[in-house]
Records
---
Amino acid sequence: MFDSVTIVGVGLISGSFSLALKEKGMVRNVIGVSRTEQSIQKALELGLIDETLPLEEAVLKSDLIYVAIPVDVTVPVVRKVLDIINDRQIVADAGSTKHSLCSALADHPMRRRFVATHPMWGTEYSGPEAAVKDAFRGRTCVICEKQKSDPDAVEAMEKVYRRLGMEIAYMDADSHDMHAAYVSHISHITSFALANTVLEKEKEEDAIFELAGGGFESTVRLAKSNPSMWLPVFMQNRENVLDVLNEHIAQLRKFKSCLEKENYDYLRELMENANKIKRILK
Amino acid sequence: MFDSVTIVGVGLISGSFSLALKEKGMVRNVIGVSRTEQSIQKALELGLIDETLPLEEAVLKSDLIYVAIPVDVTVPVVRKVLDIINDRQIVADAGSTKHSLCSALADHPMRRRFVATHPMWGTEYSGPEAAVKDAFRGRTCVICEKQKSDPDAVEAMEKVYRRLGMEIAYMDADSHDMHAAYVSHISHITSFALANTVLEKEKEEDAIFELAGGGFESTVRLAKSNPSMWLPVFMQNRENVLDVLNEHIAQLRKFKSCLEKENYDYLRELMENANKIKRILK
């Protein structure tokens, strides 16, 4: 499908994306671009990329340029790429926020060659070693502002993500950021805060290590996530994240109030209401 | 090792316990006791138990009586069992709280035949269908007030849990309840509250279903837990749970304040501190 694909950033998402394209026979050659020499070496070793080149040279040789780097550095990189591509090449990003990116690129003369995508998949790990085969499968990929991209570019990206086993959902950038705050960003905040809670209260680290069951590990695992990746997400999606964080604190205060007042009927109601999530998550 | 074992309650924990004993060839006959006829039928079907009897008859026939029912009904059942056993039989519980149980049983003339245990393992599911093979492995089992139980009873339970692949930790009941609040009970509260947050904010349930990635599922999965099992835990461990819940709300307010004031240096610090959990969880 593609002769050459450039991945900008050689980490969890781009590395898994590359592995999947190779596995499906959808690309002949993958070029890696990264400012971190160590990551490039690791990505070559792991077979995530076939070669490395400076950004400009890589772009010239590629049908698709896939940008998966922290969202605070995505705009300048995508802009630079759009400055030098021709109108048969495609640029796509994989970032967790879309409003500020789409706004920043709105007036670029090559905007229509860019497809704003967010494959809703990830783990708490980062870097090329975190890349896994068979990522993305069964998850949803959001495409934003479809109408601002050339139909051939959108179709190519839809085809790629579908071959990776993803469903496609279409949204404007604002809706995406709001939904992403609810179903992804807040989970990271609560995990980070839960880790800090337990680290603060439980001075006996051995006890955490020995006693933590699967439940704790599961609720706290996102606290291992990379701050350099998530801080810019929270900054760019600040208003939505604050909105849902305020609601979450209000919900926790209901639990607190029930316990303080020994209002156990209402506490049971709160728990039964939470059980409704079963209906929604398989 | 045992000829007959009675499990009181035929659910996630007792069912998994029975499967493991059978798998290891540590029991010939497992008797199930439950007030719920449907659960008994299911447990028979699934091979979790070999027969069912009323509590008194079951106890008379058993070397070990293993009580794994909601903690609000554990005291009367264990007391009833202690009333009728002889001094070669063993009673153990598997409950998530220990202070109120151990206090209530302190003066029972047969207290020394009781071993207070808490295998730190579970899932968000309950009932006999939730029982799984190879549960418990690699986790820790806490034994409380070891010195109040007969050495032969403690040794028998240690041997059982070790054969199931568990490490044993010893604690007084108060320490157990405090640690359990930190590494288990708070995770349930945060998950319940997170589910309510998202259900409240995200009116488009389809969006949750489509967009929720692995991260959200992981942080929210405990919200599927059974209120009849967890409400009594929160009631009995109210003070510890409130203590850690207050700390958790304070930690979340730090995130909120950083976002409100756009104090991103401190926000990064909070996230980096949370990353320390990596050191502790493998």
Note: The mean pLDDT of chain A is 95.
---
Amino acid sequence: MSRKLQIYGDPISGNCLKTKWTADYLGVDYEWIALDIRTGDTRTDEFLAINPFGQVPTAVLPDGRILTQSNAIMVYLAETNDGLLPGGPYQRAQVFKWLFWEQNSHEPYIAGRRYRKTYLGHDDSKIDAEWIPRGNAALALMDEALGKSDYIAGDVLTLADISLVAYTRVAHEGGFDLSDYAAVRAWISRVEGDLSINPVPEAS
Amino acid sequence: MSRKLQIYGDPISGNCLKTKWTADYLGVDYEWIALDIRTGDTRTDEFLAINPFGQVPTAVLPDGRILTQSNAIMVYLAETNDGLLPGGPYQRAQVFKWLFWEQNSHEPYIAGRRYRKTYLGHDDSKIDAEWIPRGNAALALMDEALGKSDYIAGDVLTLADISLVAYTRVAHEGGFDLSDYAAVRAWISRVEGDLSINPVPEAS
């Protein structure tokens, strides 16, 4: 058994990248094991023995225990490495607010359209038409919040920024136009800088 | 300004009841302010001055600061009242896993169908057909977990149980049949007992 934390993830998945960026930012000593969802890497007997649900990201602790759900892995990494999650309960609740909101009101539409368009090759007519206004409502809400502070939950980088930037920075791949959301665009650059990750090229 | 925590909520909303049950279980001294979403109580100038998004639940701290998002309010209540959230980071991550999963993979389908059928009066044909298999997949996954332990994140009641029971106990109002999920049904009774809440009558 490995003595190091392992994270299984597919780099096309924002949910996986969230956990990788968090581990990198916090200086965690871990092994990244890249799987390709599209070629069935998460359906092998070997991987199903680790996570019977066949989902990534999956984190395996040095003692063999398993963690799943991207935002829960991020919370674990922050709590065990003392960073990206403020100390006071009110400020923590602001971070959690955005993390829950991301899963309920952002990811389903912003990541959902990207996956269907870019990876499944679905035409717009095959995707629920409500996802466009709902995704735009999420972006507008972020834009308003980011007009008031440099980071989504206040003045410092937290898990909430890493979680939300993962799919927001590739929103154009799902057909969302960020040109109306200036504060969101400035924040994407800021967070990419903080995380030392390269900007995503816009489709030409 | 009130010197007591206030929670604004509509008792038809499982998301609101989650926060009420958590506060009750933890013995928090708070004021519950019942609003009726359907008659516009969350759209009044008075309420929009408190929460510009017009959403419940909304918690107002004694100093006037606002908390939103049901699961984030629950985390705040647990962290400030020392209960329902285990101490160790791995066990906490298990609770967070289910809380995030609830928002992403359970609530959209289980609560979504209930709201449309029971409160908007929508016919099945007007609701995304995918919501039935997705809701059942969520119930099946819970049933498997609850076949192994009395509570969803292990052997003790946590926030994850309160969050998940809120809409699971009224799943039949959304057209889901719990008769195949014996472990889920036993767990609903267990959690209702722990929270001292009455069972929901099944539709006759």
Note: Chain A has two domains: 5-81, 89-195.
